[in-house]
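For the sake of transparency, this paper describes our internal protein records without simplification. The remainder of this section carries one protein's record, kept here as part of the documentation:
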Amino acid sequence: MSNINAPYGCRKCPRLAGFLDDQRELRPDYFNGPVPNFYAPDPKLVVIGLAPGMHGANRTGRPFTGDWAGDLLFAALDKYGFSTGEYDKRADDGVILQQAVITNVVRCLPPQNKPIASEINTCRDLYHKSQLEALPDAKVLLCLGKISHDSTVRALGLRLATHKFGHGTEYMDPQGRTILSSYHCSRYNTNTKRLTEDMFYKVFERAREICDA
């Protein structure tokens, strides 16, 4: 497979580039750059998040690593056989993905965890679309949250009107891959019970079924 990453010094989005400049001064021990994908060769599952978290991926340099969202995601990956090793919130914790890739529709940390439309569009056109095209043999594109879902649907050239976001929704893309979506595994969603652990695990159970079919 081809691994499509944004270069560390990417400045295609001026607001994000300037924000990361500030973070390098404030937190020089953090990664503070476009976070590369975390992947296994020949993946069947593509996990698609929103963007790096301030004290998660932006700190560690690995998607979903170091914050609450990662705790739940890596527990699900382990439970359903998409990873081995013990997750310990560090990029060097020894976790190895099995038949899976983790990526984000926006590769850089956005202020207040909220990318704007132009940033989502730029990252989709430069990196996300190319990454999806480079994974024709994947079986499941698992979108975490509405922004991830919408950007992925657009990257695939599909209409949002007929591919609406919802927890547990399933659609087929032009290459026969299943677009499976879930509420994002953020602390806010789990604290408010919009997303429970059981709900999240059921989505991964479905992803496992499709990948094994």
